[in-house]
Specification:
Elements lengths: L37 H19 L4 H5 L9 H20 L31 H20 L5 H27 L23 E4 L2 E5 L17 E5 L2 E4 L5 H9 L11 H10 L7 E3 L5 E5 L2 E4 L11 H10 L7 H9 E2 L4 E2 L46 E7 L24 E4 L16 E3 L8 E2 L3 E3 L6
Parallel strand pairs: 10-13
Antiparallel strand pairs: 1-4, 2-3, 4-14, 5-6, 6-7, 8-9, 10-11, 11-12
Helix pairs in contact: 1-5, 3-4, 3-5
């Protein structure tokens, strides 16, 4: 997700009464047991910090301070930025405490310093960044202990836990970009259980559904996820699973990267300028077999995994080649959340229960997507699988606010990116933590980006043929 800094005078969060729309069937917290409580928030903070350490403690100090890619910050910048945001929001805003390190506010402001410039800043050393983060966390937990009944304060803690997890996923992407020995290890996902062959696509019937969510209905929801509103979606057919590596290789073999008729004009220009011939991290060996680089290892491209590290332009070109298109954001969310029998919108494709290992590939338990067709327990009512986890999915929709959008707690979180050419991604990846992944969660990035863990699925209007 695009980085967002803190604003000095954030507006108040608009909390509505329970929605009058009877189409909402959403738990008010990830476990479906009501409002956030301090123990839940403390656990979320601890989980995020443990992952931050796992991503950084595995590297020597010199690898934390260098730039591994112009697209990414040095690891040490992320470390101190995470701590600085926690100080700004949890110590000063929620706790009303005096600044601990006001001198760091400008240095770790993501809007003031583009990623390419950060290696040249007078950043804290890895040891100092860790000490700062530990000191901030100790005080934040003290503040959390006094939050009884403070809905706004609880939201700020939920926001910061998600913020750290989002940076953890960004650091995971930096690990993918770094060169050298492998530093991360995880077991592969389980193979799908043998079953009858899945249909290539599923029908999502026409009709209205409730898109988005109000803060009163989900205290974890960030500002761009709401307000809840009714949207009519015509009937369409959606890929049952994300597009696989094998399917994408057919596009390549058919000359897909050399035929401008499949490409958006700006995408074709970018393809030529960047000399794109396949997904990022792919290359052919001397025998013509496709190999990929994955977290310091080189291996054959597995044909049955969702294709990964493709840009929006590549996803769009594939869809055109296949005689299909990318789903709109509304189509994606209806497929993931709408239950036709009840007319209600769920928090997750499978219901309100918090994600478990049987539902989706989330939380960096693995360092790769699961094969297409995995996780039948996580299927949506329409029959589509792997809508959450595995790979972020590009949509046809440009990132902007919903009707009656209100920025909270600061406009730079979302509003500053509206209408600036960012495309919406949905569903999360294997590197996304469950607290930052739900049916309403919105991610966004530029259509040329490939370092993110993004894939896609395609769709077609009902009544049209499959290309």
């Amino acid at each position: 997700m695009t980085e967002t800094p803190v604003a000095p005078t954030p507006p108040k969060r608009r909390v509505t009464a329970p929605s009058a729309l009877d189409a909402l069937d959403i738990a008010s917290a990830p476990d479906g047991r009501g409002p956030l409580d301090p123990s839940e928030l403390a656990a979320a903070l601890e989980t995020a910090r443990r992952r931050t350490h796992e991503l950084t403690d595995c590297l020597p100090a010199e690898e934390l301070t260098v730039r591994h890619s112009p697209l990414m910050s040095p690891f040490v910048w992320d470390l101190a930025h995470i701590a600085n945001q926690e100080e700004l929001w949890l110590l000063r805003r929620a706790g009303g405490r005096a600044p601990l390190r006001a001198d760091l506010d400008d240095l770790y402001d993501a809007f003031r310093h583009p990623r390419a410039d950060r290696p040249n800043l007078p950043l804290l050393s890895p040891a100092d960044a860790r000490r700062y983060a530990a000191e901030v966390r100790a005080q934040a937990l003290e503040v959390l202990g006094g939050l009884t009944g403070d809905t706004e304060g609880a939201f700020l803690f939920a926001m910061i836990a998600q913020h750290e997890q989002q940076h953890d996923e960004t650091m995971l992407a930096t690990h993918q970009l770094r060169r050298g020995r492998a530093a991360l290890y995880a077991p592969p996902p389980a193979r799908p259980r043998p079953e009858h062959r899945l249909p290539a696509e599923v029908l999502v019937p026409a009709g209205p559904f409730t898109m988005g969510v109000d803060p009163a209905d989900d205290p974890w929801a960030l500002d761009n996820e709401g307000p809840a509103h009714r949207v009519f979606v015509p009937a369409f057919w959606l890929d049952t699973t994300p597009v696989s590596n094998a399917a994408y290789q057919e596009f390549i073999a058919d000359g897909g990267y050399h035929q401008p008729r499949w490409w958006h004009p700006e995408g074709w220009l970018h393809r030529r300028q960047a000399n794109l011939t396949g997904p990022a991290f792919w290359h052919r060996d001397l025998d013509g077999e496709w190999l990929r680089h994955r977290f310091g290892r080189t291996e054959p491209v597995p044909p049955d995994e969702p294709v990964l590290h493709v840009s929006w332009y590549e996803a769009d070109a594939y869809a055109r080649w296949a005689g299909r298109r990318l789903p709109t954001e509304a189509e994606w969310e209806k497929a993931a959340r709408h239950h036709p029998a009840t007319g209600r919108s769920r928090r997750y494709p499978w219901g309100a229960a918090a994600p478990e290992a049987r539902h989706a590939n989330l939380g960096q338990r693995h360092l790769r997507p699961a094969p297409v067709g995995a996780y039948p327990d996580g299927a949506a009512p329409c029959g589509a699988r792997q809508l959450l986890g595995d790979v972020w999915e590009w949509t046809a929709t440009e990132f902007t606010g919903y009707p009656d959008f209100a920025a909270h707690p600061y406009r730079e979180y979302s509003e500053a990116f509206f209408g600036a050419g960012y495309q919406v991604l949905r569903g999360g990846s294997f590197g996304t933590d469950p607290i930052a992944c739900r049916g309403t969660f919105r991610n966004w990035d530029l259509p040329i980006r490939r370092q993110i863990f993004a894939g896609f699925r395609t769709c077609r209007d009902a009544g049209t043929g499959v290309g």
